[in-house]
Amino acid sequence: MKKTVVAAAVMSIGLGAAQAQEAVVKLGSAAPLTGTIAHLGKDLENGTRLAIETINAQGVTIGGKKVRFELIGEDDQADPRTGTTVAQRLVDAGVKGVVGHLNSGTSIPASRIYDQGGIPQISPASTNPKLTLQNFKGVFRTIANDVQQGGALGSFAVKGLGAKKVAIIDDRTAYGQGLADETEKAVKAAGAQVVAREFTTDKATDFNAILTKIRATGPDVIFFGGMDAQAGPMLRQLKQLGVNAKFLTGDGGCSPEMIKLAGDAMTATTYCSMAGLPLDKMPGGAAFRDQYRKRFNGEVQLYAPYAYDAAMAIVKAMEKAGSPEPSKYLPELKKSDFAGVTGNVSFDGKGDIKEGAVTIYSFKDGNWVPM
């Protein structure tokens, strides 16, 4: 009996010593986990979580010490003010890096908090060019920006869809308005006319007033800069008003949820863009989809692969630097160059992904299909 007790005590001491030798490094994730686009925020957090769980399962040593990563997820509610509160909370919690935010409108003000705290931030979803034009040393993104995406959308509307008259609507967020501005520039550059420029909000559900005004201008294409929570109902209301223009939106509406929300208003004349390659075309896309399904019992929405690569970039930089401290690993993060799920992950001098692809999708047989 005494031998058993002693053996148990020795095992307990050994386990405690092993745990003591294992350093815990906290990484933050920030995205809307409640509200109308919570499904996209959760997708972002899931991608980050999957990367951390994969790293922990493989085991990682940084600077000669075994390290276990811990994820601290925060809900920024897609709100700029809440975003800064969440950012400060993550800094105060001692995170060594942040994957997020989703919305440009929260990423941009939050980035100042991270910069002041010396914490690198990689957004897998925020596309407004302003994010990386603030001269903050530790701000990056793993997705193409709105200059690239808006240029592709505007060119496609005119050259791909033959539009001579284009109406543009945005939700007045940093993301929606920024993407609409770049799309408008590209439409005009391609020789078409912008016959209307209207705006709504990211909380609105009734668009009849602005859509009635747009109907009177007779557009060939209507572009909406915003998220699926507004794009779906908007498309329904366009159908109810008898507007037959082609409908085009950006990555915020290029989701399975958009299809659900729009219902039978989705037709073959509905298009969207994604800043990146289709999941099936990503080098690690097929394996990532299987891994995601197994872990979360659901489908990838939009941003999970980019969040996964963002978390991996942070950890790889820590490994190369031999330290999880931001001041030590940031120089290595800037030099990132590895094969990720989404493609090659490397950043330019501003922090933008170097090889940012843009894909146009059309609606066919109940799904978004890359053109």
Automatic annotation (TrEMBL):
Signal peptide bounds: 1-22
Domain Leucine-binding protein stretches: 25-365
Protein name stated in the entry: Branched-chain amino acid ABC transporter substrate-binding protein
Keyword set includes Signal: yes
Keyword Signal in record: yes
Family: Belongs to the leucine-binding protein family.
Pfam families on file: Peripla_BP_6
Annotated keywords: Signal
InterPro entries found in the cross-reference section: Leu-bd, Peripla_BP_I
